[in-house]
Amino acid sequence: MKKRKMISTIRKRFNRISKLLEKLASSFNADDIHRMRIEIKKLKAFRKLTSSRNRRPRLPAALRNLYQSAGVIRDLQLQIKRLEDFSFREISSPAGYQALLREELEKETAKFRTRVPSPIVMAFEERIMIKDLPSSVRKNTIRKFFNKERKKIMAATGGVMRYEQFHRLRKIMKTLQYNKSAIVPILDGYQPTGVNEVTELLGRYCDACTSIRGFQRFSKSLNESEKLKAKALYTSFQEERSMALRKLKERIGSVPQLLDHDSV
Questions:
Q1: pTM of the full predicted structure?
Q2: What is the largest CA-CA distance in the chain?
Q3: What are phi and psi of 48, to 5 degrees?
Q4: Residue ranges covered by each domain of the chain
C-alpha cells in the first residue's frame, strides 16, 4: 500500500467525521452518532495496520475523547430505542425509568458538545496521523498484522468465555473487518463474510449486556411501585441476552476455520 493511498484514506475519514459533527451540532440523531463512531473506529483500525512505530498505536487525544463521549450517548440511545421496541410487544416500561434515561442523555449530549474539537484541532490531529505513516505498507507487513490479530482471537476464544472475552473478541474482529480491503487481496481462503456475521452476533450480545448494566444502574433510582413494574422489562432484557448468547455459541466454534488462509 503506497503512502499516497494511506493519506487519502485518513483524509477521507476525517472529512466524514467533520461533516457528521456539523450535523450533530443541531440534532443528535442516533444514526449520525453511530456513523461517526464507526468512522473513528475505522481510523483506529487503519492506524493499527499502518502505524510506523512499535508502540501500541492510539488515536489522537481529541478524537479519543470524542469517541468515548459518543459511546455513552450511543448506549443511552439504544436503551431508549429498546424501550420503544418493547412497548410494541406490550411490555411497558416505568415512566420514571424513561425520564431518567432522557435526563441522562441530555447531560451527556451537553458534555459531548464541550468535547467537539475545533476545525483547527481536527486538522492538527489529521496531520499527526499522516506524519506517523510509514513510506509504504508491504504485503508481508499486512500478513504479519493479520496473523497477529488472529493469535489474539484464538487466545480470546480459549477457555470459559465471559462478557470481557466476548467484548475483546468483538474489537479484534472489527479491526479485521475495517481493514478487509487491504487484507482480502493477499490472503487466499480468508472469509470476511463469515467473520462479519460472527462480529454482528458479538455486537448483539454485547449490546444486550450493556442494556442490562444500564438498567441495573438507573433503575436504582425508581420508587418501589416502579421497580415492581420494571421486573417484566428486566426479564425481557435477560431473554434478549440469552437468545443472543445462544446464537453466538452456535457460531463461535467456526471462527478458526473462518480465519484460515493461504498467502497470495
A1: 0.88
A2: 64
A3: -65, -40
A4: 1-137, 138-264
